[in-house]
Amino acid sequence: MDLPAVWTEFEVRRRESLRRDDLLEREQEFSGIVERQARFMFRVAYGLLRNVQDAEDAVQEAFLKLYRGEAWRRMEDEKAFLARVVWRVALDRAPKAADRMDDVAGMELAAGGQSPESGVATEDERALLRRLIDGLPDELRQPLLLSAVEEMTSREVATVMGIPEGTVRTRLMRAKAELKKRFAAMEVQR
After folding, report:
1. Which string of DSSP letters, residue by residue, matches 166-188?
2. H-state helical runs in the chain
3. CB 84, CB 150: distance < 8 Å
4. What is the spatial distance between Cα 10 and Cα 116, in angstroms, rounded to a whole number?
5. How far is residue 55's CA from residue 47's CA, in Å, rounded to a whole number?
6. Total-model pTM
7. CA distance to 44, 46, 97, per residue, from 55 (Å)
8. 36-74 burial, b for 16+ CB within 10 Å, e for fewer?
9. Between 52-68 and 3-49, two packed helices, what is the crossing angle to 10 degrees?
């Protein structure tokens, strides 16, 4: 074998080894993201879709889209970036999910140590709050869920939703005011 042929074979093997190492590193890096953020992404999707199976499907689809692309390797704010990706996937699924939305009762169990009456009252209050929140227009409900349930900052919510931070703050104020108004109206009826 002459020197150029040996060198070429060596170079081909070296490049294959580097590709395998790069692939392994990429898979490990992505697995770390999945382990750190899967639950968070599920909560974001569930907040929009209100169905466990639809939220799981949205998270899987979001991770698949991320893995196929390279944008996840350049993300600056991991949490906000991933929330935005799963939010968009969930928004695409929302009309389909609304057609088969299940009752969410039973998703939350009363905490242990409560009396049955207290547990029922607490669950009733939660169900009422869920209904009031679900009754809000999407433009108010979505930032409220991200802010209150997911504990995201106004800046993170703005990034996820693709709207200005000031708009997020305004919508949060309007959502809270509307919830107070609706809750007061419910109290008067009781």
Report:
1. HHHHHHHHHHHHHHHHHHHHHHH
2. 3-49, 52-68, 78-99, 116-134, 138-144, 154-161, 165-189
3. no
4. 73
5. 8
6. 0.55
7. 8, 5, 9
8. ebbebbbbbbbbbbbbeebbebbbbbbbeebeeeeebee
9. 150
Phi first, then psi, for residue 72 (nearest 5°) are: -65, -20
Question: Over the stretch 88-139, which tens digit does the pLDDT of each residue have?
Answer: 899 888 876 555 544 433 344 334 455 555 555 567 777 777 788 888 898 9
In angstroms, rounded to a whole number, what is the distance separating the alpha carbons of residues 169 and 89? Answer: 24
Residue 128, helix vs strand vs coil = helix
Whether the Cβ atoms of residue 51 and residue 99 lie closer than 8 Å to each other: no
Which residue type is seen at 21?
D
- The class that CATH gives domain 38-100+113-189 is mainly alpha
- Six-digit token string for 40: 């968070």
List CB contacts of 56: < 8 A, sequence separation 6 or more: 42, 45
Give every CB contact of residue 51 below 8 A, 6+ residues apart in sequence. 97, 100, 101, 102, 104
In the chain, what are the domain boundaries?
A: 38-100+113-189
Structure tokens at 78: 């991991």
Q: What does the pLDDT average to over 35-47?
A: 89
